[in-house]
Automatic annotation (TrEMBL):
Recorded catalytic activity of this chain's protein: uridine(55) in tRNA = pseudouridine(55) in tRNA
Transmembrane regions listed in the UniProt entry: none
HAMAP family in alphabetical order: TruB_arch (MF_01081)
Boundaries of every Dyskerin-like domain copy: 1-48
Pfam families: DKCLD, PUA, TruB_C_2, TruB_N
PROSITE patterns in the cross-refs: PUA (PS50890)
Its EC number(s): 5.4.99.25
Entry protein name: Probable tRNA pseudouridine synthase B
SUPFAM superfamilies xrefs: Pseudouridine synthase (SSF55120), PUA domain-like (SSF88697)
Stated role: Could be responsible for synthesis of pseudouridine from uracil-55 in the psi GC loop of transfer RNAs.
GO molecular function, one term: RNA binding
GO biological process terms, semicolon-separated: box H/ACA sno(s)RNA 3'-end processing; mRNA pseudouridine synthesis; rRNA pseudouridine synthesis; snRNA pseudouridine synthesis; tRNA pseudouridine synthesis
């Protein structure tokens, strides 16, 4: 497997499981994720409800709440993929923002303070937030100014999950001493979901489902919906043998002997995605070792499994 380290060269039995892209359309929908372009106005919860109604599903869930006026990338998990979408809650995010200063500011001063607000920063979450209101640190990976027009600044920010851009703007205004607020915000990336990656509107989804139901044409749905495995694309991978799949599905931790391939960037205590040789998402968990250590591991557990996404009995039981 390209770009993977080989622990034990293995092959998969075509009788069990299925490559995510080759699932029957009903399974493809119920194990799918929509990279939705959220419009301004509705809440993220309302978007969930509309998607669920459009596709006639019992459940759906989104990967990271956006305020009603905020637009952009809102991954929505469908059916059984609702649990998998939770992997995106800790994924890095990217936004494009318009910030407005309350008084005129020298352009050089703006750029100087923006540089200071890159890297590790401290934030107090807003009063209206889903987390406890206490000071906490977050990482800003980059903050790029595109344009300064009077008191308005257009910039792109890449940041750790849980970074509040509204608070970021407020704090920059305080640091300069003139005050500032977030005037407009669009999310452009959540993990591996970007504006360039099958971004669909609610109308796109509605039309695609209509073509499927009325004409039997699956192609538009398969374009609007991606396999739930895409929610784990940003994570390091551990690929397991067919013989280990059902044990993991029953809640077992991943033993060294069940590993076939693994990413070369796994760090100890980091979150990893566990996948089959066909690319199916089985589970996620915390790696007990680094990539090199796992390669050398002859026995014992390599990953503590925390969440299981695949149902049991899809692969045969090969454990006691």
């Amino acid at each position: 497997m390209k770009d993977f380290l080989t622990k034990s060269k293995s092959f998969t039995n075509p009788e069990y499981g299925c490559a995510p892209e080759e699932r029957e359309i009903s399974d493809y929908i119920s194990h799918g994720v929509i990279n939705l372009d959220k419009p301004s106005g509705p809440t993220s919860h309302e978007i969930d409800s509309w998607v669920k109604r459009i596709l006639n599903l019992e459940k759906s869930g989104h990967g990271g709440t956006l305020d009603p006026k905020v637009t952009g990338v809102l991954p929505v998990g469908l059916g059984d993929a609702t649990r998998a979408i939770q992997l995106l809650l800790t994924a890095p995010k990217e936004y494009v923002c318009v910030m407005t200063f309350h008084h005129e500011v020298d352009e050089d001063k703006i750029r100087e303070v923006f540089n200071e607000f890159t890297g590790k920063i401290f934030q107090l979450p807003p009063v209206k937030s889903a987390v406890k209101r206490e000071l906490r640190s977050r990482n800003v990976y980059y903050s790029t100014i595109y344009e300064i027009n009077g008191r308005d600044v257009l910039f792109r920010i890449g940041c750790e999950a849980g970074t509040y851009v509204r608070t970021y703007c407020h704090n920059i205004g305080e640091a300069i001493g003139v005050g500032a607020h977030m005037a407009e915000l669009r999310r452009t990336q959540v993990g591996s979901f970007t504006e360039d990656n099958h971004l669909s509107t609610l109308q796109d989804v509605t039309d695609a489902y209509h073509f499927y139901k009325e004409d039997g044409d699956e192609s538009f749905l398969r374009k609007a919906i991606m396999p739930m495995e895409r929610a784990a694309d940003y994570l390091p991978k551990v690929v397991i043998k067919d013989s280990a799949v059902d044990a993991i599905c029953h809640g077992a931790n991943l033993a060294s002997g069940g590993i076939a391939y693994l990413s070369d960037n796994i760090q100890k205590n980091s979150i990893v995605a566990i996948e089959t040789l066909k690319g199916e998402l089985v589970a996620s968990g915390n790696s007990l070792f680094s990539s090199d250590e796992i390669l050398d591991l002859e026995s014992g557990f390599a990953v503590n499994v925390s969440k299981v996404f695949m149902k049991t009995d899809i692969y045969p039981k090969m454990w006691k």
